[in-house]
Design a protein that fits this description.
single chain; 123 residues; mainly alpha; Serine Threonine Protein Phosphatase 5, Tetratricopeptide repeat; 7 helices
């Protein structure tokens, strides 16, 4: 994350690629680590899809996190679950997967989340 404040585009890309490799190695080493999956999903979602093509990776991690939470609600807070569902919908939307996006956001809205999610989804 050191490269995000850089003004040198080569440095930005270099740091982003290094972080991608590190996150991928961490998930390969410890695929059931919730924190690593959350971090990689968040990092992948923040990268421009046109350059890095990481939205599918984010979807993989977010779907994994949803599945794990549904089996064990103690792995993270309900607020984190809301954010995971919202991010999953955004990732689907980014890739043009409208049905999947709608399903993720319908699940989120059915849980009566904070008003901020209702506003974000309406935008």
């Amino acid at each position: 994350m050191i490269g995000r404040d850089s003004t040198d585009h080569r440095e930005l890309f270099s740091h982003a690629i290094k972080a991608m490799k590190n996150f991928d190695e961490a998930v390969n080493y410890s695929p059931d680590d919730i924190e690593i999956r959350l971090l990689r999903a968040n990092h992948s979602l923040r990268l421009p899809e046109a350059f890095f093509c990481r939205t599918a990776t984010a979807i993989t991690d977010l779907e994994y996190l949803v599945e794990r939470y549904q089996k064990d609600r103690g792995i993270f807070s309900i607020e984190t679950y809301w954010q995971v569902l919202y991010d999953l919908g955004r990732a689907y939307e980014r890739l043009g997967m409208e049905k999947e996006c709608a399903a993720a956001w319908e699940t989120l809205l059915s849980l009566n989340p904070d008003a901020k999610y209702r506003e974000l989804i309406r935008m």
